Recover the amino acids of this structure.
């Protein structure tokens, strides 16, 4: 059994509120700027971590699905936080109750496009790791 106890967080938050209430205007501005810088750094680190997670967890599932459906799979890093995956084949795609991976990927993707290109059926999935940040 795992237990996660965050009950002590309330005392810390109350202590921080008390400290903030005693800051001068200049100190408050400086603290605010520090918080902005810290948040930006945290989001960048989380985005980078989420991108690595996408590469480790999602790309193997996409490769397996491409193999199963006799598809061409094209992976592009469209931006520092965005991965675009395009699946193409000549026979189309059936998504059934046994298609767990692709249904999961459809839900996780920020964009899903289904189209026809050069008589091939294409599925385009866009994953933005910045949107996976809590």
């Amino acid at each position: 059994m795992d237990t996660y106890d965050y009950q002590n967080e309330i005392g810390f938050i109350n202590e921080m509120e008390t400290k903030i209430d005693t800051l001068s205007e200049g100190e408050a501005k400086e603290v605010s700027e520090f918080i902005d810088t810290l948040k930006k750094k945290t989001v960048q680190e989380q985005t980078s971590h989420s991108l690595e997670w996408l590469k480790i967890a999602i790309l193997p599932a996409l490769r397996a699905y491409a193999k199963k459906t006799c598809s061409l799979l094209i992976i592009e890093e469209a931006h520092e936080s965005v991965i675009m995956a395009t699946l193409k084949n000549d026979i189309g795609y059936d998504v059934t109750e046994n298609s767990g991976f692709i249904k999961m990927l459809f839900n996780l993707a920020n964009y899903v496009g289904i189209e026809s290109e050069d008589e091939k059926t294409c599925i385009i999935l866009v994953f933005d790791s910045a949107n996976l940040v809590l």
